[in-house]
Backbone:
């Protein structure tokens, strides 16, 4: 679906145009066309491919909508794949994709599986005509910067969830639930990292060495994106390390709880074993047993068992087994 099609010249918006009129503006000096789609159809992609002479492999990647973050060059055109990461109400993460084709006189952005619009990117670019004047490469930076900035709230949410789990680690009986929550959190962190790490490597190539011609004027701004991505990547690595430590601590707590339970069971088994010994001895039906003729033999036997078990119980309590 077409969102908008706008012409800019010397950093300022000229007009919203119909896609059929794009060719009328491509040859104007200092002019470029910015076309934005959401979940573009095959016919729409075929039309822009013909209009801007896009490479068929890049268009094929954009039509599939499930690509690894990357930045590739096809002649004078740069093709960028940027993944969007959005938190759903239930805490799950939805991964979308923005595919951007950038040429000297055009920008085509295709947003897939993403609920958050990028209208603020266009508004920002139009508020900074001195930067937009540098060309279509600045639009690529602005789109990339806006998407990367949306990673930060996701990272903050993951950090808060990890803090909540850590507070429950030393709560008895929460071991299994904590491990399940930690592994679910680790899976979401891995999802975000798959969006960040390849993009960090790709954008780094736009800041050093040979830079595509359309991006030369925005090289310094891409360094800012690299810095943000590096911070996010470091935060994700820290979260993964902390989760690994939390899992080990949680498993240690489970082991300690099981050991304490085993000690309690062993202590009670010892107490009942002592009573069983006494009962077994006095339960033997021998002829010569002095206790059999005593009037207080039965109460004395019960008292002996109670006193012995009480002494043993107090010893176990003192050693911390009960």
Residues:
């Amino acid at each position: 679906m077409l969102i908008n099609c706008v012409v800019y010249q010397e950093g300022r918006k000229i007009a919203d145009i119909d896609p059929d009129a794009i060719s009328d503006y491509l040859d104007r000096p200092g002019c470029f066309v910015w076309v934005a789609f959401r979940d573009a159809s095959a016919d729409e992609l075929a039309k822009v491919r013909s209009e801007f002479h896009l490479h068929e492999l890049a268009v094929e990647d954009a039509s599939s909508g499930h690509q690894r973050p990357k930045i590739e060059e096809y002649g004078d055109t740069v093709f960028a794949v940027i993944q969007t990461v959005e938190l759903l109400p239930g805490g799950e993460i939805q991964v979308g994709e923005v595919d951007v084709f950038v040429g000297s006189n055009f920008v085509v952005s295709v947003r897939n599986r993403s609920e958050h619009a990028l209208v603020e990117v266009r508004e920002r670019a139009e508020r900074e005509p001195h930067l937009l004047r540098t060309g279509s490469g600045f639009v690529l930076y602005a789109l990339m910067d806006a998407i990367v900035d949306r990673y930060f709230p996701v990272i903050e949410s993951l950090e808060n969830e990890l803090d909540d789990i850590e507070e429950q680690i030393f709560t008895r009986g929460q071991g299994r639930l904590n491990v399940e929550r930690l592994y679910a959190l680790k899976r979401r962190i891995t999802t975000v990292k798959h969006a960040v790490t390849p993009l960090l490597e790709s954008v780094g190539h736009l800041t050093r060495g040979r830079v595509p011609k359309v991006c030369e004027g925005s090289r310094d701004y891409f360094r800012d994106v690299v810095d943000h991505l590096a911070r996010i990547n470091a935060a994700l690595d820290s979260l993964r390390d902390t989760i690994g430590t939390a899992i080990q601590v949680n498993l240690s707590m489970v082991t300690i709880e099981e050991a304490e339970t085993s000690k309690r069971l062993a202590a009670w088994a010892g107490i009942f074993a002592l009573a069983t010994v006494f009962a077994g001895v006095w339960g033997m039906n021998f002829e010569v047993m002095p206790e059999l003729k005593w009037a207080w033999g039965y109460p004395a036997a019960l008292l002996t068992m109670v006193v012995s078990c009480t002494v043993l119980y107090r010893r176990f309590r003192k050693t911390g087994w009960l």
